[in-house]
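Worked example (supplementary).
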Amino acid sequence: AQSVTQLGSHVSVSEGALVLLRCNYSSSVPPYLFWYVQYPNQGLQLLLKYTSAATLVKGINGFEAEFKKSETSFHLTKPSAHMSDAAEYFCAVMVQGAQKLVFGQGTRLTINP
Amino acid sequence: KAGVTQTPRYLIKTRGQQVTLSCSPISGHRSVSWYQQTPGQGLQFLFEYFSETQRNKGNFPGRFSGRQFSNSRSEMNVSTLELGDSALYLCASGRAGTVQETQYFGPGTRLLVL
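After joint prediction of all chains, the assembly is encoded as:
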């Protein structure tokens, strides 16, 4: 079965510091991986997705993620955190044949001034 | 282009009642999926519709049902509400329902069962 695990339910960084949110996946087939962000009282907004075209994927708001097959990882990074990045972030894998997203438990990102 | 819309945004019901939630996908999108989000269980897949047919279903009891209309709008119904059904219900739409395409999410309907 395909699944994702997000390491760290809460991450806190200072404004201007590097943001690193960890995601590991489990899949017996080449995965389609996604990162979504959720701001309070809102739905999910796509940050970026991996569909095997390139291992380094650039997304919106300065975020990027690197697909590493050997480590079964798809970590999300941003070089310099901004206060507006405070939100909950979800890593997800699309289950092939079932057309459904399986989400990690989410990581709440806090930015300290 | 307008995004995914969901109505109502907030809903309060009592145990035993039933509720219907509505989702209008992005224009031209034919796939609609529903997810339940709770603090304890996180985001869980309910079902997916494409061209008025339910193609996939998650592990939820039969009290949860849905349908899709010819204009791709979808409704989700929960009968005999339980306290544990309190959640944010998210709808997502996709153009063709293929595995690598992006699913675009609506703002959700927050359901509180008392």
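Two points are worth noting when inspecting this output. Chain B has a mean pLDDT of 95. DSSP finds no helices and eleven strands in chain B.
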